[in-house]
Amino acid sequence: MFDGTPCHTLYVKNLNDKIKKIELTRQLYAMFSTYGMVLDIMVSKAPKLRGQAFITYKDISDAANALKRMQGFPFYEKAMMISFAKRESHVITQAKKYVPPKDERTLAKETNAKLAAKKKPAGDEEEPAATIYVENLPDEANESMLNLLFSQFPGFKKSRPIPAGGKAFVEFADPGAATSAKDALQGFKVTPDRPIKLTYAKN
DNA sequence: AGCACA
């Protein structure tokens, strides 16, 4: 088909390019909107685009009808030459994006997740703190060993091992610094079988 | 003659 494959947008050329952009747009709208809802009209004075217009309809059938009816129509002493645009306009492609419906399992999962989140609001959701609580350390872990581990991180202040407990507090300048260290060392194996566990200290 | 907009 010489007009191209049907499309929501009409490509109009051979327009009188001496007409001001706003006026052209307004006149085109007046005529073309009589065939159906026009979503957008684009005219440009750019060298490559002068004398042309893109007219986008909500419905393809209206676009097709307008094309047929307006083809060759004299407009400011020039016959309009109309075809379907090569590509759909963005207004159309954006609106066409298909959102797959959620199946029941997905919905149930989401509902459960929401309910669970409500049950324990601040429960095991960690509140960032400047001090980290370290667990699963070897019993013999002491301050200098902890310093060795944590002082490589910016903002490190001091380590406070809990005597003989395999646990320690490590202080940082602020929660941000503590977070970097915590994330970096999470699960770090001090000995081959001992991943340490890091959480924020509770105030 | 010439097909853009995000």
TrEMBL record:
Q: Name one GO molecular function term.
A: RNA binding
Which Gene Ontology CC terms are recorded?
spliceosomal complex; spliceosomal snRNP complex
Protein name per the record: RRM domain-containing protein
Q: Which domain of life is it from?
A: Eukaryota
Q: Which organism is it from?
A: Oikopleura dioica (Tunicate)
Q: Which CDD domains does the record cross-reference, listed alphabetically?
A: RRM1_U1A_like, RRM2_U1A_like
Q: Which family does it belong to?
A: Belongs to the RRM U1 A/B'' family.
Domain (RRM) ranges: 8-87, 130-203
The protein's UniProt keywords, in alphabetical order, are: mRNA processing, mRNA splicing, Nucleus, Repeat, Ribonucleoprotein, RNA-binding, Spliceosome
Matches recorded under PROSITE patterns? RRM
Where does it reside?
Nucleus
Family matches, as Pfam families: RRM_1
UniProt key word Coiled coil: no
Instruction: Please cite one Gene Ontology biological process associated with this protein.
Output: mRNA processing
